[in-house]
């Protein structure tokens, strides 16, 4: 097989470079980084190079006449259908000029030329011109179709980008938490609200199981329309209302979990229920106290007369003393009932709350219950409209319970701070001894876990705080201790 000459090799290299530049120009035009003038220059250059190669290789016998076809195709890519037709006309004109010039011997190709009869000349002209214009028509049609398809694809791509942006905005702005997982229960997506509710890190580890975030969410009752679960998060226990829906996909499907944080709502509901119970019990306590007070006064008066009677024998006098002592205790209990049932409205005055709290803590340090208990205070200066006597009673009731629960070598911490528009007073003890089942009942009257307690101290404290327009909450666990949180408005 005869090897390619140096001229042939150079020719093919030149052709490759030319059409590589054509492709680059085409991509630049599509991307809007080149103008039509550059494309025209490129097509004219292709035409000139094709004409030179055809002339050098014998014109009618040249193997490079196909370059005119490539020039037309390049014009259709770089320009459009009209550009392809113009390139076809220019190519036909250039080829015809070369043929005529060689026929009339105006030009002499370096490699010589074969016999060019009139019939052969007409055949070469007709076949090449026809091929050029057919290619131009076909390439123009294909270019138009490609352009239309590209336009539609661009529109669809723009629509998809808009939909994707809208979807991301919806997911980001959703107040509900949203988590998706695959068929194996591995988390695939967590929206911003879910991260906030569950106090998650910005970047979650890959392969994280959904049960580690929402324990029991994919349990046997996962397909219930609506249910509630309790989840422990870094910021505390949360009550979540969630629904679980299956997702259809080609890889076996997945699961969509949508949930809301119902913690505050459940707390408000519990506060309302507690307020209703306290109101009903308060009314009953007031009626009972009034009914008991009158006969109790008569009984005590009669007992006092018996003590003053000189004819009373010693054994009877001892019994009368017991009667007086127990009637006094019962009278004190009745007074507590009345104080709980109908507490006087608070007389609010601007108070330096940190001073009031500090004085109350110092006063209770001499209490026997506070012996060998480590007491810490961190009090921010705050001026709050409160009834000093009533709030002092609240602090005493809660602090004495904390001292008793902490015991010897225990710890009690009192903190005061401002958060937003409210003052927050926290009283914490290290015992954490309140059972979870009792947390919802601890502010109910007559409920006490301490032997000899009346169960009215915390219920009275709750009534006083509510009368100030505030709230009081409690949390307790052996690991984190017990904390009473008293919330009071900074403005009266």
Notable characteristics:
5-stranded antiparallel sheet; 5-stranded mixed sheet; 54% helix; 12 helices; alpha+beta
Structure description:
The chain has 492 residues and is α+β, with helices and mostly antiparallel strands. It has 12 helices and 12 strands. The strands form 3 sheets. It has a 5-stranded antiparallel beta sheet with strand order 2-1-5-4-3. A 5-stranded mixed beta sheet has the order 7-9-10-12-11, covered by helices on one side. Strands 6-8 form a two-stranded antiparallel ribbon. A hairpin with a 2-residue loop joins strand 9 and strand 10 (422-429). The relative contact order is 0.05.
What layout of secondary structure does this protein have?
Elements lengths: L5 H25 L5 H21 L9 H13 L2 H23 L14 H56 L3 E6 L4 E4 L1 H7 L11 H4 L13 E7 L2 E12 L6 E8 L1 H46 L5 H28 L7 E4 H12 L9 E6 L3 E4 L1 H19 L4 E9 L2 E8 L27 H11 L3 E7 L3 E9 L3
Parallel strand pairs: 7-9
Antiparallel strand pairs: 1-2, 1-5, 3-4, 4-5, 6-8, 9-10, 10-12, 11-12
């Amino acid at each position: 097989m005869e090897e390619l000459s140096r001229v042939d090799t150079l020719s093919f290299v030149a052709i490759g470079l030319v059409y590589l530049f054509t492709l680059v120009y085409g991509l630049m035009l599509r991307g809007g980084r080149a103008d039509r003038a550059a494309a025209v220059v490129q097509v004219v250059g292709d035409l000139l190079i094709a004409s030179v190669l055809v002339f050098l290789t014998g014109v009618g016998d040249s193997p490079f006449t196909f370059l005119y076809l490539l020039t037309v195709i390049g014009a259709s890519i770089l320009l459009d259908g009209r550009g392809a037709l113009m390139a076809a006309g220019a190519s036909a004109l250039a080829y015809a000029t070369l043929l005529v010039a060689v026929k009339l011997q105006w030009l002499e190709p370096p490699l010589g030329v074969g016999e060019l009869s009139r019939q052969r000349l007409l055949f070469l002209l007709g076949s090449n011109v026809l091929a050029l214009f057919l290619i131009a028509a076909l390439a123009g049609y294909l270019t138009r179709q490609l352009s239309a398809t590209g336009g539609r694809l661009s529109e669809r791509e723009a629509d998809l980008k808009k939909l994707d942006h809208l979807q991301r905005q919806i997911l980001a702005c959703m107040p509900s938490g949203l988590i998706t997982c695959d068929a194996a229960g591995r988390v695939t997506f967590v929206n911003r609200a879910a991260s906030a509710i569950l106090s998650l890190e910005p970047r979650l580890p890959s392969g994280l199981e959904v049960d580690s975030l929402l324990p029991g969410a994919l349990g046997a009752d996962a397909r219930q329309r609506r249910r509630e679960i309790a989840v422990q998060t870094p910021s505390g226990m949360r009550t979540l209302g969630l629904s679980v829906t299956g997702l259809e996909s080609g890889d076996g499907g997945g699961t969509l979990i949508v949930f809301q944080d119902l913690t505050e709502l459940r707390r408000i509901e519990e506060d309302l229920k507690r307020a209703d119970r306290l109101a009903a019990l308060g009314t009953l306590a007031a009626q009972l106290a009034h009914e008991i007070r009158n006969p109790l006064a008569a009984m005590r008066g009669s007992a006092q007369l018996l003590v003053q009677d000189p004819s009373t024998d010693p054994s009877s006098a001892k019994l009368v003393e017991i009667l007086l002592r127990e009637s006094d205790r019962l009278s004190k209990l009745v007074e507590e009932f009345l104080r709980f049932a109908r507490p006087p409205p608070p007389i609010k005055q601007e108070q330096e709350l940190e001073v009031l709290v500090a004085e109350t803590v110092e006063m209770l340090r001499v209490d026997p219950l506070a012996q060998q208990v480590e007491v810490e205070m961190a009090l921010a200066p705050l001026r709050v409209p409160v009834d000093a006597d009533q709030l002092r009673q609240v602090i005493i009731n809660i602090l004495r319970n904390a001292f008793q629960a902490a015991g010897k070598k225990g710890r009690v911490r009192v903190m005061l701070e401002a958060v937003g528009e409210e003052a927050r007073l926290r009283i914490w003890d290290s015992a954490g001894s309140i059972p979870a089942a009792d947390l919802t009942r601890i502010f109910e009257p007559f409920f006490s876990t301490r032997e000899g307690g009346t169960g009215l101290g915390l219920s009275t404290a709750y009534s006083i705080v509510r009368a100030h327009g505030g709230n009081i909450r409690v949390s307790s666990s052996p690991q984190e201790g017990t904390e009473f949180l008293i919330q009071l408005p900074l403005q009266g």
